[in-house]
Automatic annotation (TrEMBL):
Alphabetical UniProt keywords: ATP-binding, Cell inner membrane, Cell membrane, Membrane, Nucleotide-binding, Repeat, Sugar transport, Transport
Sample GO molecular function, one term: ATP binding
InterPro entries attached to this UniProt entry: AAA+_ATPase, ABC_carbohydrate_import_ATPase, ABC_transporter-like_ATP-bd, ABC_transporter-like_CS, P-loop_NTPase
Originating organism: Trinickia soli
Protein name, as recorded: Multidrug ABC transporter ATP-binding protein
SMART domains, sorted: AAA (SM00382)
Length: 509
């Protein structure tokens, strides 16, 4: 009888009984996961469920208090042996670790450049980089400056770098967060190709549909505990959401199709006239008081640039933006605030928050003059306002308004950004990808704000490609290659809207 072990039955990576505490807080409590060779295994859960801590343990950045980690049936190396960890596992994070001012080749072989007579052998490094990229069928020039690459290309370079160390287990952290539809399709095809070549993935995403498209197995964490691991095909969407939230039913979002129509004489709150910029032109539309209008399209469609121009985050080149009778100056956030425009920007980490400051300081940032003379507000007033917004938006902050926002989950950070946008009691609320990178319950809470703001008679512009975000809209304008190409009233069909976003006529066979 053969004693040969079938390596396909040995997990590529396995964590058993892993517990990690920070003070009295349990980040993980007896958690396990088993990732089999050649699969894409999804890791899902609400913000704060323990996903980041588990990834930190699986990549050797954090030592668990108890439990063990194995790779290929063997114990994980000591944390101090970084080379051994790189040979086993790598993580491609949502925020790239690529050094933008270096070339692709330099990034691939950073800190391990081939040398000749104690100096870097540039020719050999470029040759090795070319061979590596060709071997893994990654169409990127080894001499290109990394900062000039697309987000998609930078991700593939990071994957190639991980594979060059010998790792065949890659963790992808929100890999599609900054990609548009075509880029996502190409990434998924590449993942499938790499799987066939023996690479295994742990796939982390808040986009549940992606899990059903690309993954074969899924593990759900909730409140620092392991809830379920199962084949994706055995866990329908409603059950998956229930496992993540502990509540039955799907995402409860107010669908605009069920609303009473706006009065015919509703006043116009925002008017955009023949707006043009670097990646859009001839954009015109109006939003009435009490109306929610969606602006959608691929990442390259220009939708984000238009929304940022309205909020003063980006200067438009021509055309006019009007709030009431006033025309807004170009690229002036303070002026936009003064005319009654509040904004949740696309990137909360770089545009929405000061991570080292508290909930109260971030939430009150736009109303300092109202809270104190000469723009100097007392801590008591700021904290009182912060506490008010914590209650209004159900922000989970253990230390209350004094809680530093870097210590909050992604969903709660986004609620703080929303609190700041609402602080000025705006006439027009501009939301740019408002639920990106947040869990199901946080998404539901953020979108419920839209309905509340609309009921107050304010105008809302939602610039997003997320269908759940757009269901809150009375109308959805679809941009394609810088132009508004279509308009859909509430009640649209998913396939029709998606086809318009991708520039496809859904009636064509």
């Amino acid at each position: 009888m053969s004693t040969t072990t079938d390596t396909r039955s040995i997990p590529v990576a396995q964590a058993c009984g892993v517990t990690k505490r920070y003070g009295v807080t349990a980040a993980l409590n007896d958690v396990g996961i088993c990732v089999m060779p050649g699969e894409s295994h999804a890791l899902v859960g609400r913000n704060g469920a323990g996903k980041s801590t588990l990834v930190s343990i699986l990549t050797g950045l954090t030592k668990p208090d108890s439990g063990d980690v194995q790779f290929g049936g063997m114990p994980a190396p000591p944390l101090s042996d970084r080379d051994a960890w790189r040979e086993r596992v790598a993580c491609v994070y949502q925020h790239s670790t690529i050094i933008r001012d270096l070339s692709v080749a330099e990034n691939l072989f950073i800190n391990r450049q081939p040398q000749r007579r104690s100096v870097i052998d540039w020719r050999a490094m470029r040759r090795d980089a070319r061979a590596l990229l060709e071997h893994w069928k990654i169409d990127v020039n080894e001499n290109a400056r990394a900062g000039d690459l697309t987000v998609e290309a930078r991700q593939l370079v990071e994957i190639a770098r991980a594979l060059s160390y010998g790792a065949r287990f890659i963790i992808l952290d929100e890999p599609t967060a900054q990609l548009d539809g075509d880029e996502i399709k190409r990434l998924f095809r590449r993942i499938e190709e790499l799987q066939r070549e023996g690479v295994t993935f742990l796939f982390i995403s808040h986009h549940l549909q992606e899990i059903y498209e690309v993954c074969q197995a899924v593990t759900v964490l909730r409140d620092a505990r392991h809830i379920v691991s199962a084949p994706v095909c055995a866990l329908p969407r409603a059950q998956l959401i229930e496992a993540m939230t502990g509540e039955s039913g799907g995402l409860a979002v107010a669908d605009a199709a069920a609303r009473e129509p706006l009065p015919a004489d509703a006043a116009t709150a925002l008017e955009v006239v023949d707006l043009g910029g670097a990646d859009y032109t001839g954009v015109s539309f109006a939003v009435k008081r009490g109306e929610v209008v969606g602006l959608t399209g691929a990442t390259s469609s220009g939708r984000t640039s238009v929304a940022e121009a309205i909020a003063g985050l980006r200067a438009h080149e021509r055309g006019d933006i009007r709030v009431g009778a006033a025309s807004l100056p170009r690229g002036d956030v303070c002026a936009a605030l003064g005319y009654g425009i509040g904004c949740v920007p696309k990137d909360r980490h770089h545009e929405g928050l000061v991570l080292t400051q508290s909930v109260a300081e971030n939430a009150s940032m736009t109303i300092m003059r109202a809270l104190g003379r000469f723009g100097i507000a007392s801590p008591a007033r700021k904290n009182a306002f912060g506490a008010k917004m914590i209650d209004a938006l159900d922000i989970k902050a253990a230390q209350g308004p004094m809680h530093v926002v870097s210590g909050l989950s992604g969903g709660n950070q986004q609620k703080v950004v929303m609190a700041r946008a609402l602080a000025t009691d705006p006439k027009v609320l501009v939301l740019i990808d408002p639920t990106a990178g947040v869990d199901v319950k946080s998404k539901q809470a953020l979108l419920s704000v839209v309905d509340g703001v609309r009921e107050e008679g304010k105008a809302v512009l939602v610039a997003s490609s997320e269908l759940d975000d757009l269901r809150t809209c009375d109308r959805v304008l679809v941009m394609f290659r810088g132009h508004v190409e279509a308009e859909f009233r509430a009640g649209w069909q998913d396939h029709e809207l998606i086809a318009a976003m991708e520039g496809v006529n859904s009636d064509e066979k």
